[in-house]
Amino acid sequence: MENKGIADIFTAIADILDIEGENPFRVRSYRNAARTIEDLSQSLESMIKTGMNLEEIPGIGKSIREKIEEIISTGKCHFLEELRAQVPAGLTELLKLEGLGPKKVKALQDQLGVDSVDRLEKAAQAGRLRNLAGMGSRTEEKVLKSIEKYRAGMGRFKLSVGFIYAQALLEYLKEVPGVRRLDPAGSFRRRKETIGDLDILAICAKGCRVMDRFVKYGETAEIIAKGETKSSVRLQCGLQVDVRVLEEESYGAALHYFTGSKAHNVAIRDRAKELGLKISEYGVFDSKDEKRISGAKEEDIFKAVGLPFIPPELREDRGEIQAAEQGKLPRLIELSDIRGDLQMHTTATDGKHSIAEMAEKVKEMGYAYIAITDHSKAVRVAGGLDEKGLARHLKEIDKVAAQVTGVRLLKGVEVDILADGSLDLKDDILQECDVVLAAVHSRFNMEEKEMTRRIIKALKNPNVNILAHPTGRLILEREAYKVNLKEVFQAAFDYGVVLEINAYPDRLDLRDVDARMAKEMGAKLAISTDAHSAAQLELMRFGVYTARRGWIEAKDVINTLPLEELFKFLR
DNA sequence: GCCGTTTTCGGCCCGACTGTTTTCAGTCG
What we know:
Blueprint: H1 3-19, H2 24-39, H3 44-49, H4 62-74, H5 78-86, H6 102-112, H7 117-125, H8 137-151, E1 157-158, H9 159-174, E2 179-184, H10 186-189, E3 194-195, E4 197-204, H11 210-214, E5 220-226, E6 230-235, E7 240-246, H12 251-259, H13 262-274, E8 277-280, E9 283-286, E10 292-294, H14 298-304, H15 320-325, E11 340-341, H16 355-365, E12 369-375, H17 387-403, E13 408-416, H18 427-430, E14 435-439, H19 448-460, E15 466-467, H20 485-495, E16 498-502, H21 512-520, E17 525-528, H22 540-549, H23 563-570
Parallel strand pairs: 4-7, 11-12, 12-13, 13-14, 14-15, 15-16, 16-17
Antiparallel strand pairs: 1-3, 2-4, 5-6, 6-7, 8-9, 9-10
Helix pairs in contact: 1-2, 1-5, 7-8, 12-14, 19-20, 21-22
The structure holds one DNA strand.
């Protein structure tokens, strides 16, 4: 079974135990394990095969290791099946409804026999919820609304979508008289590939009407909560936005707190506790006399627990606190380190703009070089080039290059990796290229072994420089194909092939955690936009964010090199 | 259920808002 499936099993266990009123810390253990497993770069199955002790993974102890082993060897988890025998199948689904937690779900089942979303809807419509302790007619209204939203399938949003709404909202709130400072926090600030909601922090003058204005924002569909320090709305697109108003003296503590991640915060607070301190969103306090020590600046929080500043992108409790403690935090790559873009498409295949138009755009951006990398013939829908077509196209690139000053155009291609691992174009034409990207665009549903063999065979071709979007996933749309990344990264290292972090916001492929493993295995990376228009060349930042989340430094990335060094490297 | 250079037992982050309550439990982040 894939990691995702195993993580889902532990989430299901946690949900049922939660409803059953189990020790909340035991519940949390299962949830933590599920999260950890989803973040792994390697399948648990292959980890077991190579003899690794799963208990070395933080958050996985004896009990969960045994369950993983059972799931992998039998495909089932006995414990979950036992739990499911006690609890109606639809019950855990109710937890997904906003405003319903384990206690209410339990009461609904015990007292009204509600065990599914449909039955809950009927009970609420019939006005039967108000008979329960702690519930009233407002609860019924909220439940019906939650069901409607749930059915509409509102979930997470791509980071790039978050950027669009965040920018517009910040512009709007900035205009409110008395607003002194605004910062987005949360997973948006950590640049996570998807965001569940948008958190905005504010400092305001006394009497500022920021909350009144916020809930009147033009795209507000629903006001979820409105208070003096915290308000929440849902926008028409379904995105929830929270605004929090804070005092200047505690702003840093709040910024840290609301940036998260939750796991990072727990670890920081745990550490504070050991030092006799208490950290909350209001500041750093002495545990004994509750006296306030600091908290105006975000740095204060780290200083209080004896650590240097940790960049938001690293705050996932993936070892950043230990690294900070040992002075081993990476010097994360920045957008300004990028000197060129090594994947883009033109009108020769499925791009919107010509070679010259792409070149003009990157001149504005100040790049030293770009590679033009159109598709090969296997990608029919994109009008991929055959050998002859590519030969003509390479000449065209040379012609345009002769007319363009200030930026060097590299001749490239994104050649398809066919089902058997051979390449879609002959070697002699690939040799004409400065950069050859290889990529999978078909037959996604192979078995892991077959897919791994296919990709590694392609990497062995000495003409291949970069493996493009190595897992093929589309965020929120398509799962990655099954492939043993550890073996692929090893092959990439052995054959000197660079691994791409595709910056296109729907891809971000490699993922953050995968890029980190690639780096740790010694492989080099390239961050490329895969732009299909001139405007999309600006998407580079999303690739850089992903790289930063993967602990990547400028020296790990080949398109931070000056042109001459890049050439040397590619040869 | 996990974890440990104070611990192998006894901890496990902390506060705002809501709705239904007369002082708080539940949910959320």
